[in-house]
Amino acid sequence: MHILFLSHYFPPEVNAPASRTYEHCRQWVRDGHEVTVVTCVPNHPRGEVYEGYKNRLFQREQREGISVIRLWTYVTANEGFVKRTLNYISYMTSVMAAIPWLPRADVVISTSPQFFNGLAGYFVSRLKRIPWILEIRDLWPESILVVGAIKNKVIIKMLEYLEYFAYRKADRIVPVTEAFKHYMVGKGIPGAKIEVIKNGVDLGFYKSVEGNNPVIQELGLEGKFVASYFGTHGMAHHLETVLYAAQELRDHKEIVFLLVGDGAERNRLLKMREEMRLDNVIMVGQQPKEKMPYLWALSDVSMVLLKKSQLFKSVIPSKIFESMAMCRAIILGVEGESKQIIESAQAGFCIEPENSSELAARILELYRKPELGSQLGENGRKHVSEYYDRVVLARRYESLMSSLRTVGELVS
Q1: CA gap 354, 307 in Å, rounded
Q2: Order of all β-strands in the sheet with 301-305
Q3: Is the pTM of this model over 0.85?
C-alpha cells in the first residue's frame, strides 16, 4: 500500500504533531508499506528555516525509508493570527499546485490542526481519486476561539462551515480522543466513519537513561529536585501557573522549576520571571529530540498544564505518555479525559487547572516523599506499555487504511 500523508510539521521539528506523524509513518515503512509525507521546510516555532534547509518550491529527501516532499510556504513565527493564517493557507495552496507531481497512492491522510492542512486532503483525494482520512488532533476553530485568537463573527462562521464540510467529505475521521468523537457525532457526523486512535509513545526511544546524565551538569541541577514542563509555551497552556507556584516555593532551595520549549508566550514568561526575581526557574529553548530522554531523566516530576476551559476537557496532551514512558510522576492540570488516564494509571496527581497553590503543594509533597514519586512513575510506565505503545497504534491505523483500500469506498 502507498500512503500519502499531508502534515504541516515533520522532523527535524520536535513538536507533538511532527512526532506522531513520523512515528506512525516509520512503522508503516517497517511493515512493508510505501509512505510519502508532504510537508514544508522545518521552521517551527520561531519561523526560522532550520540550518541545512532552504524554502524552495519543491524538494525531496529520505528519512528512515519515508519519502519526504517539502513545499514552499510563507514562513513566519508561531505567533500572530494573520501571519499564521497566511502560513497555513500557503501550505494548502502549495499542496494543491503540487498535486500533478505527487505520487500515485492508495489513500491520503491529512492531519489537523493546522486546519487548512487538514482541508488539503480533500483536494488531493478528489483529484487523485483515492480515499481521504482526516486526522483531528485538536478541535479547530474551537481551540483558537477559547484563547481569544479570533473574535470576528464572520470569520468564525466561515471556519465553522469549513470544519463541518471537512467532516462530511472525509471518508474516515481519526480523532485522538473519545471526546472529539462525541463532539463530531453531536454535529451529525455518523459514528461509523469515526475511529479514535489516541496518541502514544515510542517505548524504544523513551526509556531509562543508563550511566551519567550530562545534562544535569550542563544545567547546574546537581542535587536538585526538578519539576519540569516540556513543550509549547502558548496561550492555551497558562504557564504563569508555574511561575506563581515557583514563587510560593522559592524558600525551598532544593526545588527547581525547569521549562523547556518555545512558543508565542515565551518572551512574556521570561519577562515575568525576571520581574518576579525567580532564581528557582530555569527556562531553556526548544531542544533536539535526541536530548529529550536526558531531560526527562533528570526530572523528578513533570507538569502537564492547560488553561481552565470546558473545551480542554476533551484534550489529551501527548507529553503525558512520554512522561509515563520515562517513569516520571505527573502533576496534571487538565480536566476530562486526560484526568481519567492519569487516575486509571495511578501515575500522578490531578489538580485544578491554573491553581498554582495546589501545584506547589503537590510538588512539595513529592519532594518530601521520593518513594511515592518512584511508585507513581513505575505505575505510569506499566500503563503506557499496555495501552499506548506507538507500534500497536500505528498498526490499528494501518488496518483502517487497508479496509478503505479493500472496499474501495467513498462515503461522501
Answers
A1: 6
A2: 281-284, 255-260, 225-230, 301-305, 329-333, 348-350
A3: yes
Give 243's contacts (C-beta < 8 A, 6+ positions apart). 269, 272, 273, 276, 278, 281, 356
Q: What are phi and psi of 257, to 5 degrees?
A: -105, 130
Domains 2-200+389-407 and 214-387 share a fold: yes
Evaluate whether the domain defined by 214-387 bears CATH number 3.40.50.1010: no
> Which residue carries 468564525 as its cell?
156
Interval 95-130: pLDDT, tens: 999 999 999 999 999 999 878 899 999 999 999 999
**Kind of pairing, strands 66-71 and 58-63?**
antiparallel
The superfamily in CATH containing domain 2-200+389-407 is Glycogen Phosphorylase B; (3.40.50.2000)
pLDDT, position 282: 98
Give the pLDDT confidence of 362-377 residue by residue, as tens digits: 999 999 999 999 999 9
Which residue ranges make up each domain of the chain? Answer: 2-200+389-407, 214-387
